[in-house]
Amino acid sequence: MRTGIHITHEAVQKIGGIGSVIAGLLTSDSYKHFFDRSILYGPLFNTDGPATSRLGKDGVVLYSGIDNYDTEKYTYIFSPIEKKYNISIVYGRRMIVNESNPGLYTNTETILVHINNIKTEAVDKFKFLLWENFLIQSDRYGDWDYEQYVRIAVPYTEILASMISKDDLVFHFSHEYMGMASVLKVIADRNKGGRKTCRTVFYAHEVSTARSIVENIPGRDISFYGIMRHRELGGRSIEDVFGDRSDYYRNELVKRTEHLDHIFAVSDITARELKFLNPRIDDKKIHVVYNGIFLKKISFEAKKAARETLKTYCKTLLNYSPDLIFTHVTRLVSSKGLWRDIMLLGELDELMAARSQTGFYVLLSTLIGNGRPASEASRMEREYGWPVLHKEGWPDLVGMESEVYEDIARFNAKSKAIKAVFINQFGFNRHSCGMRIPENAQWIDLRIGSDAEFGMSVYEPFGIAQIETIQFGGLAVLSDACGCSDLIRSKFGSGSDCYHVIDFTDGQASASINELMDLDGDTVSETEQEKIKNEAPVILEKLESSLSDIVLEDRLNRARHKSFEIDWDHIVSKNILKVLNKS
Q1: Closest Cα to residue 154, out of 116, 193, 191?
Q2: How far does Cα 124 stand from its chain's mean position?
Q3: Which domains does the chain have, with CATH numbers?
């Protein structure tokens, strides 16, 4: 029997991209045919609420030590481990559903561990093991984020041993740094004569050190990737170039991936970042597996209906029906490069005004993960015309939402052909976003009805969201920092009207590493503006096909025909299982 165990902070609640990856993996037919059993493992973050709520709305709790709750006599399995370490275990099943096709789902075992009161001596003993075997100095890191993932590793192998046959082939997947302590425990046990029928896999959804540098240096991606690709780098590591990062626990954990059996990088660019981080990693261990998308087959009539929904929304809000619709559905973090959206909109505005064309840009992004209360959205809409107009402070603009709105407001004040709307809310329907949303509108309309989805990130290991619109005949506008660009180029070919990549690092080849290190914010902004100005006419030329039903339908049909190659099932079959089958 083959068992896949996924160690993640998104074992219950989907927070970001890792949750989408896990849903794509576990609901794909290829994955389900390979693995007989799957388990999600992570910390119990919240002890509020009844026992039956521990695994979320799609979960069924079978055992909860923290609540003395047991449905099928699991106490004899978990209670000895709980007593040994003074922890509490929650065990049950969760239904994970394919995001585009609810008919595809899987029921997955889930284990959460409450480790807040774990015995100190057990943790100290394990931290010594990390030092003795892997030279990780845990006493340098006082961050609870580090501590909790070290603590869930302490009982990890014992919990699994109580549930899995000794003859099973077990694959331990560390999704990002969060599972590294647990898989290092597996390796240490194996090296001391423990279970041999196991494989360890680091799933590199990003490289934390690379992200932290790109997001915090003035030169952003232009500096970092210019240096990483520089002909004179000569095997130097990130720390050789950017300085010691050993005080950053994520840096140290990810560097230890050299000890694992396999490393799955979600893109070519992520694979290069890993080698840049730690040149000692064996090239043979790194496998580019890519992420996939959830395929949803639609008719051309459905495409037109979704576009009409967005046009109607624009008409209701701004009193015109646009020719072209631009969207950006994203998490609100600096790495998404939203200022580049405004730069591109400004260039397109000039071009479209000269051609008597109009456009509508919708940014759907919020710092409030679960969204604002629907009643507050309705009140803001009623009182001052949200989301066209915004006000500072809760329940409206919080944190960097204010900066985003300022940029959009300045753009709207000057623009002639395009107007922009910032929906700082979760969802796209009347319940969540007010009565001016067309009746029966839903989030997927932003994907299906969009003519162009922007995604010019400065750091984007893959970028599932950016390319989801491709299968619906839309144009994905990407930066060369998006890892998905290599996959899209290989599947759709150069010059395709399904995507457009802006290479912001192009033109830096003659610069030295020191010159790239010293790039300032003004120089970078000028470079970005010049690049976007040059690319805008080409982007508009590709988009103008959306103005013709005949051309748009043809583009939809061609995109739909090719998109199966970036579907999760195809990606798992051709990339991931190719590696696991050889283990």
Answers
A1: 116
A2: 33
A3: 2-292+572-580 (3.40.50.2000), 300-566 (3.40.50.2000)
| Half-sphere CA count of 247, side-chain side, radius 13 A | 2
Q: Which amino acid is at 486?
A: D
Residue with tokens 């209670």: 79
**Which of 277, 296, 298, 274 lies closest to 287 in space, CA to CA?**
274
pLDDT tens across 419-476, in order?
A: 999 999 988 999 999 999 999 999 999 999 999 999 999 999 999 888 999 999 999 9
Q: Where are the beta strands (DSSP E) in 168-279?
A: 169-175, 198-204, 262-265
Q: Which residues contact 355 (CB under 8 A, 6 or more apart)?
A: none
How far is Cα 58 from Cα 53, in angstroms, rounded to an integer? 9
Q: Taking 80 as the threshold, does the pLDDT of residue 372 lie above it?
A: yes
Are the beta carbons of 90 and 64 closer than 8 angstroms?
Answer: yes
Assess contact for 197 and 9: CB atoms under 8 A: no
3-state secondary structure of 13: coil
Which tokens in the block code for residue 412? 């709207």
pLDDT tens column, 218-275: 999 999 999 999 988 988 999 999 999 999 999 999 999 999 999 999 999 999 999 9
Q: Could you tell me if 151 and 118 are in contact, meaning their C-beta atoms sit under 8 angstroms apart?
A: yes
- Report the C-alpha gap between 448 and 309 in whole angstroms: 10
The Cα–Cα gap between 529 and 583 comes to 48
Q: Which two tokens stand for residue 382?
A: 């009623």
Distance CA 520, CA 579 (A): 42
End-to-end CA distance of the chain: 14
Helix or strand (DSSP H, E) at 83: helix 75-85
- Contact at 8 Å (CB) between 411 and 342? yes
Q: What are phi and psi of 495, to 5 degrees?
A: 75, 10
**Cβ atoms of 328 and 363 closer than 8 Å:** yes
| 373 cis-preceded (ω within 30 degrees of 0) | no
How many other C-beta atoms can be found within 10 angstroms of the C-beta atom of residue 283? 8
From start to end of 378-474, where are the E strands? 418-423, 452-455
Which among 14, 25, 93 is positioned nearest to 60, based on CA atoms? 93
Judge whether 356 and 391 are in contact, CB under 8 Å: no
Q: How far is CA 278 from CA 259, 271, 512, in A?
A: 12, 11, 22
C-alpha pair distances (Å), 321 with each of 236, 337, 417: 54, 28, 11
Per-residue tokens: 572: 């798992």
CA torsion through residues 216, 221, 225, 230, sign: negative
- Side chain identity at 421, as an amino acid letter? V
Q: Counting Cβ atoms within 10 Å, is residue 144 exposed (0-12), middle (13-18) or buried (19+)?
A: exposed
CB within 8 A of 551, min separation 6: which ones? 545
Integer Cα distance of 460 and 457 in angstroms: 6
What are the C-alpha distances in Å from 248 to residues 23, 177, 239, 564? 30, 12, 12, 40
Q: Output the pLDDT for position 231.
A: 87
How many residues would you count in the chain? 583
- Helix (H) / strand (E) element for 311: namely helix 300-318
pTM of the model: 0.93
